UniProtKB/TrEMBL annotation:
Cofactors named for this entry: pyridoxal 5'-phosphate; [4Fe-4S] cluster
Single GO MF descriptor: catalytic activity
Keywords: 4Fe-4S, Iron, Iron-sulfur, Metal-binding, Pyridoxal phosphate, S-adenosyl-L-methionine
Protein name (record): L-lysine 2,3-aminomutase
Family: Belongs to the radical SAM superfamily. KamA family.
Record-listed N6-(pyridoxal phosphate)lysine modification sites: 388
Domain of life: Bacteria
Amino acid sequence: MTPVLPFIKKQIISEQFDDTPEHFQVYTERQLDKIEALAQLSDEQRFEMKVVANVLPFRVNRYVIDNLINWRDIPADPIFQLVFPQKGMLSQDDFEQMAVVLRNTSDRSIILEKANEIRRRLNPHPAEQQSLNVPYIEDAPIEGIQHKYRETVLFFPSQGQVCHSFCSFCFRWAQFIGDKDLRFSNREAQKLHTYLSQHKNISDLLITGGDPMVMKTDHLVAYLEPMLKPEFAHIQTIRIGTKSLSFWPQRYVNDEDAAQLVSLLERMVKAGKHIAIMAHFNHWREMATPLVREAIQRLRAAGVVIRTQSPLLNHINNDPEVWAYMWREQVHQGLVPYYMFVERDTGARRYFEVPLARAWEVYREALQHVSGLGRTARGPSMSTGPGKVEIQGIAQINGEKVFVLRFLQARNPDWVQRPFFAQFDPDATWLDQLQPAFGETKFFFQDEYDAMLNKQISPRAY
Ligand SMILES: *Cc1c(COP(=O)(O)O)cnc(C)c1O
């Protein structure tokens, strides 16, 4: 498959990126009508988008509209599906209910009430993140931090609680609809620093969001530079989870403080930290513009390691060829494929989910078409309450067809890498739909995990 991108004008004219700084222009649900390209849709289609965008977060910027979407191929275009609301993202019933409200009123409070009612049905906080992952300093919960796996702490800086565009399938969608209760954020880096300095078994700090790269470089300096102090010598790796390479590569090339950002990262690397950009790419298309290539080169020249991850998504990348091409292209540009995720059980999951059996097939077939350097992505992996569960394969054991599973990460490190087995189910899309194989009544970790949920033992067994 050759990636021909005739709709990207700059690409045809030259491989050179355009160095003129670009004004960041963003559209949300209220400005859907201002996006000229949508004029080619029918009134009915535009109304459908509004219905969905009043429930699930919507935000897109000009770079995505002008460079990543093939407007001659909508609605099927994968990047169009990735950012623009589609009717199927809500259940038929929820869709109809919101459509009725929108047809009958423009009163924001009535619309919001219906939106919130629907949102509550969409499992806004999966995997017990709020109840089990929040750490404590002297019995006081620390907001804006999650600590689930021994080695790695997640930090949600308050200025990074938005993204350059929103992904329609985002599992953190609830953070973007203004529900303060659901928002992880942290005004005080102080608490993060106290927690990290008191826990010497933490080696990785993962700064996430939203997207931390929406922050001005000044803010990133304030969070990152203290990590060079001796009391944080145990923090070897700082990971930054971001989709900015896809949605706004200008961040590293011609934003006002781009050079300052790249030099901050370089300074951290030179001081001995491993700086890892955990780049979110769902489709090779996002890696094909001259601007993203330039951004990648600048980051690599600064000594940053870029690792990549993505969920497997129906309508976007449910195709082994797309993954194989993406992973080859990543290796080509010096990136390291890291995770293939299973779409989480939240938000618009019905629209994007694929059966676990299919997920494994896509992974396996894609892996067969890349060299060893492209086979570093693990998965397909489900981020569940007890841990990250990988589907290792489908096997026939003593006449029983089973899924072979293992934890890649777990609340109890002792669970990691133990194979376990579930009855094969061609339709299952998540761990909670699987039954233990071989006549067993529960999975090996179930009792211990239940005790964590019931607060009989700590949610972190380490
Ligand atoms: C995936 C994940 C991590 C990182 O796990 P690694 O296997 O080290 O990449 C850390 N915390 C949470 C909550 C995660 O979901």
